[in-house]
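Notes from the 1:1 (GR / supervisor)

We went over the backlog. Supervisor wanted to see one worked example end to end before approving the batch request, so GR pasted a single chain during the call. The sequence is below; no edits were made to it. Supervisor asked that the structure be written out right there so they could see what the output format looks like.
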Amino acid sequence: MKSVSYIGLAILFWLGMMWLGGLFWFGWHINHYVTDLTTPTDAVVVLTGGRNRIAEGIKLLNNHLAGRMLISGVSRKTSIRDIEKQCGQKANDRSKIDLGYKATNTVENASEIQSWIEKNNIRSVRFVTSNYHIPRGLEELSVYHLPVKIIIHPVYSDKVASKWWQSAGSMKFIFWEYNKFIYTWLTHRLKRWAVQK
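Structure output shown during the call:
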């Protein structure tokens, strides 16, 4: 029985070490994206929820780096003018902006983006969200196997310091986002495994 207990403890120890190593990799990864500011795409999609995301998307549209724009997760009765006031950035052509009112979370964001991409025959898209949110956002999009080129465009958040391990607030934020990503990643792979069986 003791040998079984030791094996169990060893497994828990190594799982814990893997989780901890993954946490630090996640924290490093989200702060080291390379932002592409030259490649044009058919569209830009922005996920609401973080500061400066929408303003960054409008800038990309105004600079002709995308032909159309979807803002996913907008509150009902909110207009483009309301959004411009809130983010402090004015669009050169409002007719190129579509507002997605259906999504209330990242899972629904992915579904809304997938429908919009198919409806508008999009072949390449710039994906704008907070840097810490990119891994989970891309994981949710991967469910749909979209036949599009995706260029990630991180918006760096004031909530997460680059040296996040030195800040209790940043560490807590990274901790929860990393665990949500792990949960999403594992859930998707378990579902795929169940389907294959």
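Supervisor's comment: The chain has a mean pLDDT of 92.
Batch request approved.
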